[in-house]
Amino acid sequence: MHTMKDDDVTATGGAKASGPGTRGTIFLEDAEILAHDAWPGRQHVLRVAAPRAARRAAPGSFAHITCDPCVPMRRPLSIMRADPEQGWLEFLYKPVGAGLDKLTGRRVGERLSLLAPIGRGFFPSPSRPRVLAIGGGVGIPPMIFAAERLAARPEFHAPIVLMGSELPFPFQLVPSALAVPGAPDEATHGMALLESLGIPSRLASNAGLPGAYPGFVPALARRLIEALPADERAKTQLLSCGPQPMLRAVAVLAREFDLPCQLALEEYMACGVGGCAGCTVRVETPSGPAMKRVCVDGPVFEAREVYPAVFA
Questions:
Q1: Engineered SS bond to 35: which of 47, 99, 291, 308, CB 3.0-4.6 Å?
Q2: CA 160, chain centre distance (Å)
Q3: Is the overall model pTM greater than 0.70, yes or no?
Q4: Residue 294 sits in the same domain as residue 184
Q5: What is the CATH number of the domain that holds 210?
Q6: Within this chain, do residues 191 and 268 fall inside the same structural domain, yes or no?
Q7: Which domain holds residue 297?
Q8: Are residues 94 and 208 in the same domain?
Q9: Quick one: 17 and 96 in the same domain?
Q10: Which of 118, 153, 175 is the last residue of a domain?
Q11: How far apart (Å, rounded) are the C-alpha atoms in residues 117 and 311?
Q12: Which of 219, 54, 65, 208 is nearest to 136 (CA)?
């Protein structure tokens, strides 16, 4: 674990991650659990009070959380939503391993130690105002966060969020009243929260889930991209987070249709703030291949950096 020293603490009480990849300030907060809801498929949505982190959180950033006093290592969780005015962060997670399994037992009113926000988030360019956000499994949360923030920026069109899962989706679904050009007839439902914000969304699943396109989410994305006129495709960019096979499929789409694409990677982490270099990945840079830390140099990278062979 990274140990904070006196010179790592800012005047606002935040810790500065060490190293050249640092992006912004990381706050250490004693966060009260405000809500902790269980959903089918052993999925959980956790909301905590973390006012300093909530003011600085950006789509694609994450938190490093102490799941339980008996589990010494923190666990990284992508931020799904943040309310800077009310001061809370929200996470979606599936308990895999002892740490997150212990987290499922934490109750409203209890407190947990939280380091956040960590990492470089998404940086979409207004030159491409049409954003297609593609999330798979536990990669869905950053897409929800990105969509909420982009919908509030007048230089962008309302983003379209595509979500894939083989488990029941861990949020309320509704038949969508918002048109998505190119969406297959089977893709009828979306996320109720996004629908209420005027953000269209569609679902994909191979598990026969109602209202979902029967297939993987990159295949659904392909249908939408192919339906775009050339002038609209020239205004489009992709954001994505999910398992590696899905990210590679999204990178292939970006290369095929000549679309800018940013990917949020998921890696095992120890310290989470750049000190241990346990989450390094090989990426392509202008000066050649390099090893980058997902926690602070990312987790968001350009698709062509992560999958250079796809763009060769």
A1: 47
A2: 15
A3: yes
A4: yes
A5: 3.40.50.80
A6: yes
A7: 130-311
A8: no
A9: yes
A10: 118
A11: 31
A12: 219
Q: Is residue 96 part of a domain?
A: yes
Dihedral sign for Cα atoms in the order 112, 33, 8, 17: positive
Same domain, 265 and 146: yes
What is Dmax (Cα atoms) for the chain? 59
Pairing of strands 62-65, 280-285: unpaired
Per-residue burial over 136-156, b if 16 or more Cβ lie within 10 Å, else e, is: bbbbbbbbbbbbbbbbeeeeb
Residue count (the chain): 312
Q: CA separation (Å) from 33 to 53, 113, 237?
A: 14, 11, 36
Q: Is 156 left (phi over 0), alpha (psi -120 to 50) or beta?
A: beta
Q: Report the C-alpha gap between 47 and 14 in whole angstroms.
A: 20
pLDDT digits (tens, 9 = 90+) for 146-197: 999 999 999 999 999 999 999 999 999 999 999 999 999 999 999 999 999 9
In a domain, 124, yes or no: no
Domain CATH code at residue 18: 2.40.30.10
114 shares its domain with 134:
no
Amino acid at 53: A
Beta partners for residue 111, in sequence order: 32
Contact between 54 and 83 under an 8 Å Cβ cutoff? The reply is yes
How many CA atoms does the CB half-sphere of 284 hold within 13 Å? 11
Q: How far apart are CA 159 and CA 131, in angstroms?
A: 5
Total domains in the fold of the chain: 2
| Sign, Cα dihedral of 253, 254, 255, 258 | positive
